[in-house]
Design a protein that fits this description.
The complex is a heterodimer. By secondary structure, chain A is an all-beta fold. Chain A is 0% helix and 48% strand. Chain A contains no helices and 11 strands. In chain A, strand 7 and strand 8 form a beta hairpin. Chain A is globular, with a radius of gyration of 14 Å. In chain B, strands 2, 4, 5, 9, 10 and 11 form a 6-stranded mixed beta sheet that branches. In chain B, strands 1-3-8-7-6 form a 5-stranded antiparallel beta sheet, with no helix packed on it. Chain B is mainly beta. Chain B has no helices and 11 strands. In chain B, a hairpin with a 4-residue loop joins strand 9 and strand 10. Helices cover 0% and strands 56% of the residues of chain B. The chains are: A mainly beta, B mainly beta.
């Protein structure tokens, strides 16, 4: 399967702990996105990379959140000092970009974060 | 401010009949629209898309219609099958924004 892969699938942690999620995009995709989805809502954009450059960040991405894509391949999303409100599904997506416009984003199955 | 809205949280349809899912948007800068299907415990799966230069795109049982003047799009599924039961998300893309803006989803139930 060469789709978008996310690890772990589930993460349960105590409030105040740090967590890190990993996303492996489709190999030829140069764009990578992070979204957050809470119950009953659609996914909300968090941040976006083109290759290794982080080009856009949402206001939802507080200072406790940091994302990296060091070699333009996989990406990590870290949340420091987790809070109850961070409980959500964190989705990663990838797409082709650049000179190729209007390409759909393909999503992984997400990491469900539960804060105790 | 919700820029993409799906006003029907749920829809129930008999197998073999047509399912019509609706979506409204407010941002006139959106130029590419997509529908995603989501099963429980899985990520959204891309279904079909349409560029703002078109008013219809068809792929098998799925057709998306775009009415730019009304800022409205719809997804038609004909004939509906029980396996189509899922949550459907409408999403819009603005090339200048580099992000998808999603609606809240519509849960489709296709009864055998």
């Amino acid at each position: 399967d060469t789709g978008v892969s996310q690890n772990p699938r589930h993460k349960i942690t105590k409030r105040g702990q740090n967590v890190t999620f990993r996303c492996d995009p489709i190999s030829e995709h140069n764009r990578l996105y992070w979204y957050r989805q809470t119950l009953g809502q659609g996914p909300e954009f968090l941040t976006y990379f083109q290759n290794e450059a982080q080009l856009e960040k949402s206001r939802l991405l507080s200072d406790r959140f940091s994302a990296e894509r060091p070699k333009g391949s996989f990406s990590t999303l870290e949340i420091q000092r987790t809070e109850q409100g961070d409980s959500a599904m964190y989705l990663c997506a990838s797409s082709l970009g650049g000179s190729v416009n209007n390409q759909p984003q393909h999503f992984g199955d997400g990491t469900r974060l539960s804060i105790l | 401010d919700q820029q993409v809205k799906q006003n029907s949280p749920s829809l129930s349809v008999q197998e073999g009949r047509i399912s019509i899912l609706n979506c409204d948007y407010t941002n006139s800068m959106f130029d590419y629209f997509l529908w995603y299907k989501k099963y429980p415990a899985e990520g959204p799966t891309f279904l079909i898309s349409i560029s703002s230069i078109k008013d219809k795109n068809e792929d098998g049982r799925f057709t998306v219609f775009l009415n730019k003047s009304a800022k409205h799009l719809s997804l038609h599924i004909v004939p509906s099958q029980p396996g189509d039961s899922a949550v459907y998300f409408c999403a819009a893309f603005n090339n200048a924004g580099n992000m998808l803006t999603f609606g809240g989803g519509t849960r489709l139930m296709v009864k055998p």
